[in-house]
Amino acid sequence: MIFLSSGLFVKSETKNSKLNIQRKKIFLNGFLIWTFWIIFYAIIFKFQIGVSWAAALISSAGNYYVYALLSISIWFICKHIPFGYFRLPVLFFIHFFLSIVFSAGWMFFSYGLWYLQAGDAIFTVVGIRTIIGWQFLFGVIIYLLIAGIFYTMIYYRQFRKKELKEAELKLLTRDAELKALKMQINPHFLFNSLNSINALVTSSPQQAREMLVRLSDLLRLTLENRDQMLVTLKKELDLAHLYLEIESFRFGDRLEVLDDIDATLLETPFPAMTLQPLLENAVKHGISSRRGKGTIRMTIKREDGNLCCSVSNTVGNDNRTKFKTAANGTGLENITQRLNLLYNDLYSFNIDTSIPNEFTISLKLPIKSNGKD
Asked: Which domain, by its residues, includes 110?
């Protein structure tokens, strides 16, 4: 419990730290923008009114740093009167009224502070009576401009939050679909394995027992990887070889397995529970449908930055059409659905019957950097 609380505290502290850094950046950027505006306004003020540089800078800084501080309240106004809460004409009228109040308050506050500091001298330094009218109007315009900027920022934040929520929901939905599809494969595989063992119980009890040992090892591997959508190729091959060992007890010399695996790819992430359904498809619709010996060839290599995997098996001429129809069944459909979720359009899944007496399923997958999804 203490460790959990500590973890939550650290997570909270990290979140608060990021928030504080973000706020500091916003205030720094705001300060720089207002400073740039003050210098720009001082230049205009200098040449339009003809006051000294010092008076122009003091007047501009005094007015607009005060405006900058007061403009924080505009942010809270925009947050509490969100865009879309009122119809657009009503919202504009509210802000127009508030801009008049805000501009009057700004001028009263900024010139009041200046008057308290310098007294009547401010009337001799700056011709207030000649500039107060357009300064008031300028205050109204700046209020409306700042309100528009704040509404844009709020809308963008809400849009980003919605976008992140949708992305998170999509990710959770995808994971749920992947787990459901994977769970669909496991019982299907178990059922076929038990059928294979059942076929040997009476004819060869010793082999049946050995098959049960292999099956228990295979189920252990399956359970170890039950929450992983991607595993290392080595783990996937271990599971595939266990399955082939189970089937070799059943078919004996009728089943020949040939491997051609690039050893440099063994730690490469690979979709979990993908090879076994391909091999099961080859055994069930290829090897078991033949009277004589059949061969399953598994090839995995690297090609143009992709992992290329193919599973080929021999099939009789009289079974080619039947096998092709069976290859579009639940197991392979399940694989393509999972590959769609994992890789979108970045993978390929092909069935090839161009070679006589041979059926081949090929996968081409982008090589991912780690085994976690």
From this structure: 25-167
